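Take a look at my tokenised protein here and describe the backbone shape.
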Amino acid sequence: MRFEEIDANLRHTLCLLAARRPTGELHEAGGVTLASAGVRFGMFNAALISAPVPACRDGLAARIAAAAAHFRKRRLDWSCWVCEDWLEETLRPRADGIFVNFGLYRAAAYPGMLAERLAPPQRRLPPLEIRRVDDSATRLAFCQVGSLCFRAPFEWFREIFDRDGLWRDDLAGYVGYVRGEPAATAVTVAGTGSVGVYNVATLPSHQRRGYAEALMRHALEEARQATGIERTILQSTTQGLSLYTRMGYREVTRFSVYATS
């Protein structure tokens, strides 16, 4: 499996979030995908490198400049998502400095991982009440967990995820409840020949008990039954890396996210 499939699922996901908002915009030009939800949370006003970038002096700078002009005109905070395999190898060590020239700083770096099929659980997983995100109550619960775990304002999460018509077809959200209280979340996105897993989060008070794994396995089994696709991909945080490795994922590429603040 090549890095393009992992990158394509990520772009598909951000494009879905933008396309299902009245303020959303999608553009593709010059090796950059612009998937802007038009919201306050700059991570979802995204530019994504979508074609190889040569090591010539202005190759990467020209793409950043085009994206910067788009978002500057709309007065939006934004972010640029880069799969390192799009960058010519000698360009990678210089990328941070080029982004800094445009006021963008590396906010996160993630390994892109895949599993052709999940490995069996290595322990007995805890009981968890799992609800699919499909009404106001589950949308708000999803936003509660996400805003706390990803340290973003609750209203910013609501602006993205608390919408009728968002959660349908190939975009599925799940909330895991412990004793009636929301404790964990996960999202699956089917497309590009794989199922992407996103927004895996567990409240600090419930971590290290197996809830994230139980929720992920449930969500991915539902996606498999609906689509027939077993291959799954994700971008891992440092905290989640050991879990994903146990579940059968291996690193294929790396992503960096650059943001204005």
Summary: The chain has two domains: 3-112, 129-230. Residues 3-19 form the longest helix (17 residues). The longest strand covers residues 105-115. The mean pLDDT is 95.
